[in-house]
Amino acid sequence: MKTVLVTGGVRGIGLAIAAAFLQKGYRVCVTYSKDEASAQKASAQGLEVYRSSVEKEEDVTALFAKLGGVDILVNNAGVSLFKQIQDTSLEEYENLFAVNMRGAFLCSREASKAMISKKSGLIVNISSVWGEVGGSCESVYSASKAALIGFTKALAKELGYSGIRVNAVSAGVIDTQMNARFSKEDIAALKEEIPMGRIGLGEDIAKAVVFLDENDYITGVDLPVNGGFSII
């Protein structure tokens, strides 16, 4: 039985990904940082739940010591920031990169150790359409997600000879708490920009991640899942 770790997997996109792997019969572990209520609900669904802040090295090393290695790592944990650059503090910048990029680095580093020994494994980084095209008033968030795409491509080259695949899924506008700040008018305007005519669901991202698990000749890709939002 494969072991899957989904960071930030107790709600939203992460929970949808975890549920999809659970349905495939895998052992699925998820992390959370603060949301105890969602963690309890995730545990009740059959997920192994661990409290761990992915931006903290000591938390990540302790987590992997408990898990004993994973076959699939999904770096999903992330935070957003919607602010103009002149109003963004250094603390906000550093916190965003700490979670979105440092967390992916730390988890990938620890996961890769066992994967290299087994000469197999899959790492999927959940990026964003804004990491591909940039988002106004989200310059720091966009930069962190763009960094994640670059990290994905480089790591795929580095680990491919050890039988490990590394891919990214860049999510479009998805119906999650992260996008709850949008008004009904904002959502309606966004739908007009999306060729598929709807906001995405966590399940749309989950299907893409499962696809990358099932096709073992794909590595180093950034797979856009955004209903055509980024078509040029």
Give the topology, please.
Layout: E1 3-6, H1 12-23, E2 27-32, H2 36-44, E3 48-51, H3 57-67, E4 72-75, H4 90-118, E5 121-128, H5 129-133, H6 139-159, E6 164-171, H7 184-193, H8 202-214, E7 222-225
Parallel strand pairs: 1-2, 1-4, 2-3, 4-5, 5-6, 6-7
What Rg do the Cα atoms give?
A: 17 Å
Beta content comes to 15-25%
Q: What is the ordering of alpha helices and beta strands?
A: EHEHEHEHEHHEHHE
Silhouette? globular
First-to-last CA distance: 41 Å
Widest β-sheet, arrangement of strands: 3-2-1-4-5-6-7
Q: Report the CATH C-level class.
A: Alpha Beta
Instruction: Report mean pLDDT, rounded to a whole number.
Output: 96
Major beta-sheet overview: 7 strands, parallel
Query: How many strand elements?
Result: 7
Say what the CATH topology is. Rossmann fold
State the secondary-structure class.
Answer: alpha/beta
Named CATH architecture: 3-Layer(aba) Sandwich
Helix content: 40-55%
The tally of domains stands at 1
Oligomer: single chain
Count of DSSP H/I helices:
8
Q: CATH homologous superfamily - what is it?
A: NAD(P)-binding Rossmann-like Domain
> Which consecutive residue ranges, at least 5 long each, have pLDDT under 50?
none
Summarize, please.
The chain has 232 residues and is α/β, with parallel strands linked by helices.
